[in-house]
Amino acid sequence: MDNLLTTPILAVSPKGKHSLPGVLAAMARDEVRGYPAQRPHQRAAWHMFLVQLAALALWTAGRDDLPETEEDWCALLLTLTDNDAGPWVLAGPDDKPAFLQPPAPKGLKWTQVETPDALDLLITSRNHDVKQKIARSAEPQDWVFALVSLQTSEGYGGAGNNGIARMNGGSSSRPFLGIAPATRQSRTPDPSAWWARDVGRLLTLRAEGCSIAPGTPGGPALLWCVNWPEGNQLDLTRLDPWFIEVCRRVRLDVSEGGMTARRTTSSSARIDGKSFKGATGDPWAPITTEDPPKSLTLGEGDFTYRRLSDLIFSPDWRLPALAEPGPGEADCLLVAEALSRGNSKTDGWKSRVVPVPGSLRGLFQSETAGSFARAQIDEIKVFDEALRNALALVAARGDRDAVGKAQYARTTDARARFDHAADALFFPALWDRLAAYTNGGKIGEQAAHERFVNNLNQAAKLELDNALPAIPCAVIYRPRAEARARRSFAARLRRAGYLPARASIDKEPADV
Fold first, then answer.
1. How far is CA 185 from CA 29, 33, 38, 190, 358, in A?
2. How far apart are CA 234 and CA 138, in angstroms?
3. pLDDT tens digits, 1-12
4. Which of 7, 126, 217, 284 measures 20 to 30 Å from 343, CA to CA?
Protein backbone atom coordinates (compact mmCIF):
# COMPACT_ATOMS: atom_id res chain seq x y z
CA MET A 1 0.00 0.00 0.00
CA ASP A 2 1.72 3.19 -1.23
CA ASN A 3 1.77 6.05 1.25
CA LEU A 4 2.53 9.41 -0.35
CA LEU A 5 4.21 10.64 2.84
CA THR A 6 6.90 7.97 2.78
CA THR A 7 6.95 6.17 -0.58
CA PRO A 8 9.05 7.72 -3.38
CA ILE A 9 6.65 7.33 -6.31
CA LEU A 10 6.73 10.80 -7.90
CA ALA A 11 9.38 11.13 -10.61
CA VAL A 12 10.89 14.58 -10.98
CA SER A 13 13.43 15.95 -13.39
CA PRO A 14 16.38 15.74 -13.09
CA LYS A 15 16.70 13.74 -9.84
CA GLY A 16 14.85 10.46 -9.43
CA LYS A 17 11.68 9.80 -7.44
CA HIS A 18 10.36 11.39 -4.25
CA SER A 19 7.54 11.08 -1.79
CA LEU A 20 5.08 13.98 -1.68
CA PRO A 21 6.98 15.67 1.20
CA GLY A 22 10.16 14.95 -0.74
CA VAL A 23 8.80 16.81 -3.77
CA LEU A 24 7.92 19.84 -1.63
CA ALA A 25 11.38 19.80 -0.05
CA ALA A 26 13.08 19.48 -3.45
CA MET A 27 11.10 22.44 -4.77
CA ALA A 28 12.06 24.47 -1.72
CA ARG A 29 15.68 23.66 -2.62
CA ASP A 30 14.99 24.76 -6.22
CA GLU A 31 15.76 21.29 -7.62
CA VAL A 32 12.59 20.35 -9.53
CA ARG A 33 12.54 21.15 -13.26
CA GLY A 34 9.60 19.05 -14.31
CA TYR A 35 7.56 15.85 -13.97
CA PRO A 36 8.35 13.41 -16.80
CA ALA A 37 5.19 11.33 -16.29
CA GLN A 38 2.83 14.29 -16.26
CA ARG A 39 0.53 15.05 -19.18
CA PRO A 40 0.33 18.69 -20.36
CA HIS A 41 -3.26 19.23 -19.19
CA GLN A 42 -2.33 18.06 -15.67
CA ARG A 43 0.24 20.82 -15.09
CA ALA A 44 -2.11 23.55 -13.87
CA ALA A 45 -4.08 21.25 -11.56
CA TRP A 46 -0.89 19.81 -10.07
CA HIS A 47 0.64 23.25 -9.54
CA MET A 48 -2.51 24.58 -7.85
CA PHE A 49 -2.74 21.48 -5.67
CA LEU A 50 0.87 21.74 -4.48
CA VAL A 51 0.57 25.47 -3.80
CA GLN A 52 -2.68 25.14 -1.86
CA LEU A 53 -1.37 22.15 0.08
CA ALA A 54 1.90 23.83 1.07
CA ALA A 55 0.20 27.12 1.93
CA LEU A 56 -2.36 25.33 4.12
CA ALA A 57 0.34 23.35 5.91
CA LEU A 58 2.53 26.40 6.58
CA TRP A 59 -0.35 28.67 7.62
CA THR A 60 -1.73 26.00 9.98
CA ALA A 61 1.71 25.66 11.57
CA GLY A 62 2.18 29.42 11.81
CA ARG A 63 5.22 29.39 9.51
CA ASP A 64 6.12 31.49 6.49
CA ASP A 65 9.40 29.81 5.51
CA LEU A 66 9.83 26.95 3.03
CA PRO A 67 11.42 23.95 4.80
CA GLU A 68 14.06 22.15 2.75
CA THR A 69 13.84 18.72 4.37
CA GLU A 70 11.45 15.88 3.68
CA GLU A 71 11.00 15.27 7.41
CA ASP A 72 9.75 18.82 8.03
CA TRP A 73 7.19 18.61 5.22
CA CYS A 74 6.03 15.20 6.35
CA ALA A 75 5.32 16.59 9.82
CA LEU A 76 3.53 19.60 8.36
CA LEU A 77 1.29 17.47 6.14
CA LEU A 78 0.48 15.09 9.00
CA THR A 79 -0.66 18.08 11.04
CA LEU A 80 -3.32 18.76 8.38
CA THR A 81 -4.77 15.28 8.97
CA ASP A 82 -4.49 15.22 12.77
CA ASN A 83 -1.35 13.07 12.59
CA ASP A 84 -3.28 10.35 10.73
CA ALA A 85 -1.35 8.89 7.80
CA GLY A 86 -4.46 7.21 6.41
CA PRO A 87 -5.56 10.11 4.17
CA TRP A 88 -2.19 9.94 2.37
CA VAL A 89 -2.35 6.30 1.23
CA LEU A 90 -3.36 5.52 -2.35
CA ALA A 91 -5.55 2.55 -1.46
CA GLY A 92 -7.40 1.84 1.77
CA PRO A 93 -10.71 0.68 3.26
CA ASP A 94 -13.77 2.26 1.62
CA ASP A 95 -15.02 3.68 4.91
CA LYS A 96 -11.75 5.57 5.52
CA PRO A 97 -10.27 8.51 3.64
CA ALA A 98 -7.43 7.81 1.20
CA PHE A 99 -5.57 10.32 -0.95
CA LEU A 100 -8.22 12.46 -2.70
CA GLN A 101 -10.72 9.67 -2.00
CA PRO A 102 -13.41 10.53 0.56
CA PRO A 103 -14.92 7.81 2.75
CA ALA A 104 -17.70 6.03 0.86
CA PRO A 105 -21.05 5.08 2.41
CA LYS A 106 -22.20 1.50 2.11
CA GLY A 107 -24.51 0.26 -0.62
CA LEU A 108 -22.97 2.10 -3.59
CA LYS A 109 -22.74 0.51 -7.04
CA TRP A 110 -19.24 0.84 -8.43
CA THR A 111 -17.87 0.83 -11.95
CA GLN A 112 -14.38 -0.47 -12.68
CA VAL A 113 -11.76 1.87 -14.16
CA GLU A 114 -8.78 0.05 -15.61
CA THR A 115 -6.39 2.92 -16.43
CA PRO A 116 -5.60 6.33 -14.90
CA ASP A 117 -6.25 8.17 -18.16
CA ALA A 118 -9.78 6.71 -18.16
CA LEU A 119 -10.24 8.19 -14.68
CA ASP A 120 -8.77 11.59 -15.60
CA LEU A 121 -10.93 14.50 -16.74
CA LEU A 122 -12.22 14.19 -20.30
CA ILE A 123 -10.21 16.38 -22.68
CA THR A 124 -12.26 15.69 -25.81
CA SER A 125 -15.42 13.68 -26.31
CA ARG A 126 -14.20 12.39 -29.69
CA ASN A 127 -10.95 10.93 -28.31
CA HIS A 128 -8.88 13.03 -30.72
CA ASP A 129 -6.88 15.48 -28.61
CA VAL A 130 -5.59 13.14 -25.91
CA LYS A 131 -6.19 9.43 -26.44
CA GLN A 132 -8.03 7.60 -23.68
CA LYS A 133 -7.51 4.24 -22.02
CA ILE A 134 -3.97 3.70 -23.31
CA ALA A 135 -2.06 3.78 -19.98
CA ARG A 136 -2.06 0.00 -19.53
CA SER A 137 1.36 -0.06 -17.85
CA ALA A 138 0.59 2.70 -15.40
CA GLU A 139 2.58 3.45 -12.29
CA PRO A 140 1.16 4.78 -8.99
CA GLN A 141 2.23 8.33 -9.90
CA ASP A 142 -0.02 8.17 -13.00
CA TRP A 143 -2.98 7.55 -10.71
CA VAL A 144 -1.89 10.45 -8.46
CA PHE A 145 -1.79 12.92 -11.37
CA ALA A 146 -5.13 11.64 -12.69
CA LEU A 147 -6.78 11.95 -9.26
CA VAL A 148 -5.56 15.53 -8.80
CA SER A 149 -6.73 16.47 -12.29
CA LEU A 150 -10.14 14.85 -11.87
CA GLN A 151 -10.98 15.89 -8.32
CA THR A 152 -9.88 19.52 -8.59
CA SER A 153 -10.77 20.37 -12.21
CA GLU A 154 -13.60 18.20 -13.54
CA GLY A 155 -17.01 19.53 -14.58
CA TYR A 156 -20.44 17.98 -14.97
CA GLY A 157 -20.31 14.64 -16.75
CA GLY A 158 -23.92 13.47 -16.77
CA ALA A 159 -26.38 12.36 -14.11
CA GLY A 160 -24.60 11.75 -10.81
CA ASN A 161 -21.21 12.88 -12.13
CA ASN A 162 -20.97 16.34 -10.63
CA GLY A 163 -18.21 18.89 -11.08
CA ILE A 164 -16.17 21.13 -8.84
CA ALA A 165 -17.35 24.32 -7.16
CA ARG A 166 -14.46 26.40 -8.54
CA MET A 167 -16.04 26.90 -11.97
CA ASN A 168 -18.97 28.82 -13.39
CA GLY A 169 -21.36 25.94 -13.96
CA GLY A 170 -20.95 22.30 -14.88
CA SER A 171 -20.28 23.00 -18.57
CA SER A 172 -17.52 25.47 -17.75
CA SER A 173 -13.97 24.67 -16.65
CA ARG A 174 -11.56 25.72 -13.92
CA PRO A 175 -9.64 28.66 -15.40
CA PHE A 176 -5.99 29.32 -14.63
CA LEU A 177 -4.27 32.69 -15.02
CA GLY A 178 -1.04 33.30 -13.17
CA ILE A 179 2.44 34.79 -13.19
CA ALA A 180 5.34 32.33 -13.28
CA PRO A 181 9.12 32.78 -13.13
CA ALA A 182 10.85 31.41 -16.22
CA THR A 183 13.61 28.81 -16.33
CA ARG A 184 17.09 30.07 -17.06
CA GLN A 185 17.37 28.03 -20.25
CA SER A 186 14.02 28.67 -21.93
CA ARG A 187 10.80 30.63 -21.87
CA THR A 188 8.93 27.99 -19.86
CA PRO A 189 7.71 28.14 -16.26
CA ASP A 190 10.20 27.04 -13.61
CA PRO A 191 8.19 24.58 -11.44
CA SER A 192 10.21 25.17 -8.26
CA ALA A 193 10.40 28.95 -8.43
CA TRP A 194 6.76 29.13 -9.53
CA TRP A 195 5.58 27.06 -6.58
CA ALA A 196 7.72 29.02 -4.10
CA ARG A 197 6.53 32.32 -5.52
CA ASP A 198 2.82 31.42 -5.31
CA VAL A 199 3.06 29.88 -1.83
CA GLY A 200 4.82 32.98 -0.54
CA ARG A 201 2.30 35.31 -2.19
CA LEU A 202 -0.66 33.42 -0.72
CA LEU A 203 0.78 33.50 2.79
CA THR A 204 1.49 37.23 2.47
CA LEU A 205 -2.01 37.98 1.19
CA ARG A 206 -3.63 36.06 4.04
CA ALA A 207 -1.39 37.71 6.62
CA GLU A 208 -2.41 41.09 5.23
CA GLY A 209 -6.09 40.15 5.29
CA CYS A 210 -6.39 40.53 1.52
CA SER A 211 -8.39 37.37 0.83
CA ILE A 212 -11.60 37.95 -1.13
CA ALA A 213 -12.76 34.37 -0.68
CA PRO A 214 -16.18 33.64 0.84
CA GLY A 215 -14.78 30.92 3.13
CA THR A 216 -13.75 30.72 6.78
CA PRO A 217 -10.00 30.53 7.51
CA GLY A 218 -9.37 27.40 9.52
CA GLY A 219 -12.43 25.60 8.20
CA PRO A 220 -12.29 22.18 6.52
CA ALA A 221 -9.60 22.25 3.84
CA LEU A 222 -8.69 18.73 2.72
CA LEU A 223 -12.19 17.70 1.70
CA TRP A 224 -11.32 14.06 1.08
CA CYS A 225 -10.94 13.74 4.83
CA VAL A 226 -14.59 14.71 5.40
CA ASN A 227 -17.33 12.04 5.44
CA TRP A 228 -19.65 12.20 2.43
CA PRO A 229 -23.10 10.82 3.28
CA GLU A 230 -25.39 10.53 0.26
CA GLY A 231 -27.22 13.82 -0.41
CA ASN A 232 -24.97 15.76 1.99
CA GLN A 233 -23.40 19.00 0.74
CA LEU A 234 -20.70 21.16 2.29
CA ASP A 235 -21.35 24.86 2.92
CA LEU A 236 -18.74 26.73 0.88
CA THR A 237 -18.74 29.68 3.27
CA ARG A 238 -17.61 27.40 6.10
CA LEU A 239 -14.64 25.95 4.20
CA ASP A 240 -11.14 27.33 4.34
CA PRO A 241 -10.61 29.70 1.36
CA TRP A 242 -7.75 27.48 0.15
CA PHE A 243 -9.79 24.27 0.33
CA ILE A 244 -8.75 21.37 -1.91
CA GLU A 245 -11.92 19.77 -3.14
CA VAL A 246 -13.01 16.39 -4.39
CA CYS A 247 -15.96 16.25 -6.77
CA ARG A 248 -16.29 12.49 -7.43
CA ARG A 249 -16.56 9.30 -5.43
CA VAL A 250 -13.49 7.29 -6.39
CA ARG A 251 -11.53 4.48 -4.76
CA LEU A 252 -8.21 2.95 -5.82
CA ASP A 253 -7.53 -0.75 -5.41
CA VAL A 254 -4.27 -2.73 -5.43
CA SER A 255 -4.03 -6.34 -6.59
CA GLU A 256 -1.41 -8.67 -8.03
CA GLY A 257 -2.14 -7.24 -11.47
CA GLY A 258 -1.37 -3.71 -10.31
CA MET A 259 -3.58 -0.76 -9.48
CA THR A 260 -7.12 -0.11 -10.71
CA ALA A 261 -9.93 2.19 -9.65
CA ARG A 262 -13.64 2.20 -8.98
CA ARG A 263 -16.00 5.11 -9.34
CA THR A 264 -19.65 5.78 -8.65
CA THR A 265 -22.12 8.62 -8.71
CA SER A 266 -23.51 11.02 -6.12
CA SER A 267 -27.00 12.46 -5.89
CA SER A 268 -25.67 16.01 -5.47
CA ALA A 269 -22.49 18.02 -5.86
CA ARG A 270 -20.09 17.76 -2.90
CA ILE A 271 -20.14 21.52 -2.26
CA ASP A 272 -23.23 23.72 -2.24
CA GLY A 273 -21.57 26.37 -4.40
CA LYS A 274 -23.76 26.76 -7.49
CA SER A 275 -24.91 30.26 -6.51
CA PHE A 276 -21.29 31.50 -6.39
CA LYS A 277 -20.83 30.87 -10.15
CA GLY A 278 -17.17 30.01 -9.62
CA ALA A 279 -16.38 33.18 -7.64
CA THR A 280 -14.92 31.18 -4.76
CA GLY A 281 -11.74 33.13 -4.11
CA ASP A 282 -9.62 30.85 -6.28
CA PRO A 283 -6.37 32.88 -6.60
CA TRP A 284 -5.90 31.81 -10.24
CA ALA A 285 -9.44 32.47 -11.52
CA PRO A 286 -10.36 35.71 -13.36
CA ILE A 287 -13.63 37.07 -11.94
CA THR A 288 -16.07 39.50 -13.53
CA THR A 289 -16.74 42.81 -11.81
CA GLU A 290 -20.47 42.51 -12.46
CA ASP A 291 -23.00 41.77 -9.72
CA PRO A 292 -23.13 38.93 -8.96
CA PRO A 293 -19.55 38.12 -9.98
CA LYS A 294 -18.64 34.92 -11.80
CA SER A 295 -15.47 33.21 -12.93
CA LEU A 296 -14.20 33.00 -16.49
CA THR A 297 -15.78 30.47 -18.82
CA LEU A 298 -13.42 29.82 -21.72
CA GLY A 299 -16.15 28.16 -23.75
CA GLU A 300 -15.20 26.86 -27.18
CA GLY A 301 -12.44 29.41 -27.58
CA ASP A 302 -8.79 30.05 -26.84
CA PHE A 303 -6.57 32.53 -25.03
CA THR A 304 -6.25 34.90 -27.97
CA TYR A 305 -4.76 38.38 -27.72
CA ARG A 306 -8.30 39.77 -27.56
CA ARG A 307 -9.32 37.57 -24.64
CA LEU A 308 -6.11 38.11 -22.68
CA SER A 309 -6.26 41.88 -23.28
CA ASP A 310 -9.80 41.85 -21.97
CA LEU A 311 -8.85 39.86 -18.86
CA ILE A 312 -5.83 42.03 -18.08
CA PHE A 313 -6.96 45.54 -19.01
CA SER A 314 -10.76 45.62 -19.13
CA PRO A 315 -12.68 47.05 -16.15
CA ASP A 316 -15.08 44.14 -16.64
CA TRP A 317 -12.58 41.71 -15.09
CA ARG A 318 -10.69 41.45 -11.83
CA LEU A 319 -7.25 39.94 -12.29
CA PRO A 320 -6.61 36.94 -9.98
CA ALA A 321 -4.33 37.53 -7.02
CA LEU A 322 -1.56 35.31 -8.38
CA ALA A 323 -1.69 36.87 -11.86
CA GLU A 324 -0.45 40.22 -10.58
CA PRO A 325 3.33 40.76 -10.70
CA GLY A 326 4.69 40.97 -7.17
CA PRO A 327 7.17 43.45 -5.72
CA GLY A 328 10.67 43.09 -7.12
CA GLU A 329 9.80 40.38 -9.64
CA ALA A 330 12.03 40.29 -12.72
CA ASP A 331 11.11 39.01 -16.17
CA CYS A 332 8.28 36.52 -15.81
CA LEU A 333 5.62 34.63 -17.76
CA LEU A 334 1.87 35.08 -17.88
CA VAL A 335 0.38 31.57 -17.98
CA ALA A 336 -3.22 31.05 -19.11
CA GLU A 337 -4.70 27.54 -19.20
CA ALA A 338 -8.15 25.97 -19.22
CA LEU A 339 -10.20 23.24 -20.82
CA SER A 340 -12.22 24.64 -23.73
CA ARG A 341 -15.64 23.31 -22.90
CA GLY A 342 -19.29 23.62 -23.91
CA ASN A 343 -22.54 21.80 -23.26
CA SER A 344 -21.69 18.07 -23.26
CA LYS A 345 -18.56 18.62 -25.38
CA THR A 346 -14.99 19.81 -25.17
CA ASP A 347 -12.61 21.43 -27.63
CA GLY A 348 -9.32 20.43 -26.06
CA TRP A 349 -6.89 21.83 -23.53
CA LYS A 350 -5.88 25.44 -24.21
CA SER A 351 -2.61 26.87 -22.97
CA ARG A 352 -0.76 30.10 -23.63
CA VAL A 353 2.43 31.49 -22.13
CA VAL A 354 3.22 35.19 -22.65
CA PRO A 355 6.63 36.60 -21.58
CA VAL A 356 6.30 39.80 -19.51
CA PRO A 357 9.40 42.03 -19.06
CA GLY A 358 10.09 42.79 -15.42
CA SER A 359 10.91 46.40 -16.30
CA LEU A 360 7.23 46.94 -17.17
CA ARG A 361 5.87 45.52 -13.92
CA GLY A 362 4.54 48.90 -12.82
CA LEU A 363 2.70 49.41 -16.12
CA PHE A 364 1.33 45.87 -16.46
CA GLN A 365 -2.23 46.80 -15.53
CA SER A 366 -2.02 50.55 -16.10
CA GLU A 367 -4.47 52.62 -18.12
CA THR A 368 -1.59 53.39 -20.47
CA ALA A 369 -1.10 49.70 -21.21
CA GLY A 370 -4.83 49.25 -21.63
CA SER A 371 -5.14 52.14 -24.07
CA PHE A 372 -2.21 50.85 -26.15
CA ALA A 373 -3.73 47.36 -26.20
CA ARG A 374 -7.10 48.67 -27.35
CA ALA A 375 -5.40 50.74 -30.05
CA GLN A 376 -3.53 47.69 -31.33
CA ILE A 377 -6.74 45.66 -31.47
CA ASP A 378 -8.35 48.43 -33.53
CA GLU A 379 -5.33 48.51 -35.83
CA ILE A 380 -5.53 44.78 -36.42
CA LYS A 381 -9.21 45.21 -37.32
CA VAL A 382 -8.29 47.73 -40.03
CA PHE A 383 -5.84 45.34 -41.68
CA ASP A 384 -8.29 42.44 -41.32
CA GLU A 385 -10.99 44.54 -43.00
CA ALA A 386 -8.64 45.52 -45.82
CA LEU A 387 -7.73 41.87 -46.39
CA ARG A 388 -11.34 40.71 -46.24
CA ASN A 389 -12.61 43.34 -48.69
CA ALA A 390 -9.79 42.74 -51.15
CA LEU A 391 -10.28 38.98 -51.29
CA ALA A 392 -14.07 39.25 -51.44
CA LEU A 393 -13.68 41.58 -54.42
CA VAL A 394 -11.75 38.89 -56.28
CA ALA A 395 -14.47 36.36 -55.50
CA ALA A 396 -16.94 38.87 -57.01
CA ARG A 397 -14.88 39.11 -60.22
CA GLY A 398 -13.88 42.67 -59.33
CA ASP A 399 -17.51 43.89 -59.19
CA ARG A 400 -18.07 45.73 -55.91
CA ASP A 401 -21.84 45.54 -56.29
CA ALA A 402 -21.65 41.74 -56.40
CA VAL A 403 -19.88 41.37 -53.04
CA GLY A 404 -22.06 39.58 -50.48
CA LYS A 405 -22.02 36.81 -47.84
CA ALA A 406 -20.83 34.14 -50.26
CA GLN A 407 -17.85 36.25 -51.32
CA TYR A 408 -16.93 37.19 -47.74
CA ALA A 409 -17.08 33.49 -46.83
CA ARG A 410 -14.19 32.89 -49.23
CA THR A 411 -11.93 35.05 -47.07
CA THR A 412 -12.28 33.10 -43.81
CA ASP A 413 -9.14 30.97 -44.02
CA ALA A 414 -6.84 33.82 -45.04
CA ARG A 415 -8.21 36.07 -42.31
CA ALA A 416 -7.69 33.32 -39.72
CA ARG A 417 -4.06 32.97 -40.79
CA PHE A 418 -3.56 36.72 -40.59
CA ASP A 419 -5.17 36.86 -37.16
CA HIS A 420 -2.79 34.12 -36.02
CA ALA A 421 0.14 36.19 -37.26
CA ALA A 422 -1.24 39.30 -35.54
CA ASP A 423 -1.66 37.30 -32.34
CA ALA A 424 2.04 36.43 -32.38
CA LEU A 425 2.94 40.09 -32.86
CA PHE A 426 0.53 41.56 -30.33
CA PHE A 427 2.20 41.24 -26.92
CA PRO A 428 5.82 41.77 -28.02
CA ALA A 429 4.61 44.94 -29.76
CA LEU A 430 2.68 46.03 -26.68
CA TRP A 431 5.71 45.62 -24.40
CA ASP A 432 7.85 47.41 -27.01
CA ARG A 433 5.37 50.26 -27.08
CA LEU A 434 5.22 50.56 -23.31
CA ALA A 435 9.01 50.47 -22.98
CA ALA A 436 9.39 53.09 -25.70
CA TYR A 437 6.81 55.30 -24.01
CA THR A 438 8.56 54.92 -20.65
CA ASN A 439 11.98 55.77 -22.05
CA GLY A 440 11.18 58.14 -24.89
CA GLY A 441 7.74 59.56 -24.24
CA LYS A 442 5.32 60.18 -27.10
CA ILE A 443 8.06 60.22 -29.76
CA GLY A 444 9.40 56.84 -28.66
CA GLU A 445 5.91 55.38 -28.48
CA GLN A 446 5.12 56.59 -32.01
CA ALA A 447 8.21 54.84 -33.37
CA ALA A 448 7.15 51.59 -31.68
CA HIS A 449 3.64 52.05 -33.07
CA GLU A 450 5.04 52.39 -36.59
CA ARG A 451 7.05 49.18 -36.15
CA PHE A 452 3.87 47.33 -35.19
CA VAL A 453 1.91 48.74 -38.13
CA ASN A 454 4.69 47.85 -40.55
CA ASN A 455 4.74 44.28 -39.24
CA LEU A 456 0.95 44.05 -39.60
CA ASN A 457 1.22 45.38 -43.13
CA GLN A 458 3.79 42.74 -44.06
CA ALA A 459 1.67 39.96 -42.54
CA ALA A 460 -1.50 41.13 -44.29
CA LYS A 461 0.24 41.55 -47.64
CA LEU A 462 1.71 38.08 -47.35
CA GLU A 463 -1.74 36.60 -46.79
CA LEU A 464 -3.14 38.67 -49.66
CA ASP A 465 -0.45 37.39 -52.03
CA ASN A 466 -0.85 33.79 -50.88
CA ALA A 467 -4.65 33.78 -50.90
CA LEU A 468 -5.36 35.56 -54.20
CA PRO A 469 -4.57 32.58 -56.47
CA ALA A 470 -6.84 30.32 -54.41
CA ILE A 471 -9.93 32.56 -54.66
CA PRO A 472 -12.21 31.21 -57.42
CA CYS A 473 -12.57 33.69 -60.28
CA ALA A 474 -13.17 33.26 -64.00
CA VAL A 475 -9.93 33.58 -65.97
CA ILE A 476 -11.24 36.40 -68.11
CA TYR A 477 -12.03 38.52 -65.03
CA ARG A 478 -9.02 37.65 -62.86
CA PRO A 479 -6.60 40.43 -63.99
CA ARG A 480 -9.22 43.10 -63.35
CA ALA A 481 -10.34 41.45 -60.07
CA GLU A 482 -6.83 41.15 -58.65
CA ALA A 483 -5.89 44.69 -59.68
CA ARG A 484 -8.97 46.08 -57.98
CA ALA A 485 -8.36 43.89 -54.95
CA ARG A 486 -4.84 45.26 -54.46
CA ARG A 487 -6.08 48.80 -54.93
CA SER A 488 -8.90 48.21 -52.44
CA PHE A 489 -6.41 46.82 -49.93
CA ALA A 490 -4.09 49.83 -50.25
CA ALA A 491 -6.94 52.34 -50.25
CA ARG A 492 -8.30 51.07 -46.93
CA LEU A 493 -4.88 51.37 -45.32
CA ARG A 494 -4.35 54.88 -46.71
CA ARG A 495 -7.68 56.02 -45.30
CA ALA A 496 -6.51 54.76 -41.93
CA GLY A 497 -3.25 56.67 -42.32
CA TYR A 498 -1.03 53.58 -42.54
CA LEU A 499 0.14 54.26 -46.11
CA PRO A 500 1.06 57.56 -47.85
CA ALA A 501 -1.89 59.28 -49.56
CA ARG A 502 -2.22 59.24 -53.34
CA ALA A 503 -4.23 61.58 -55.53
CA SER A 504 -5.59 58.67 -57.56
CA ILE A 505 -6.72 56.65 -54.58
CA ASP A 506 -10.35 56.32 -55.73
CA LYS A 507 -9.71 55.92 -59.43
CA GLU A 508 -10.65 52.48 -60.72
CA PRO A 509 -8.23 50.55 -62.93
CA ALA A 510 -9.33 50.11 -66.50
CA ASP A 511 -11.58 47.14 -67.20
CA VAL A 512 -9.83 44.20 -68.75
1. 18, 11, 20, 10, 17
2. 33
3. 689 999 999 999
4. 284
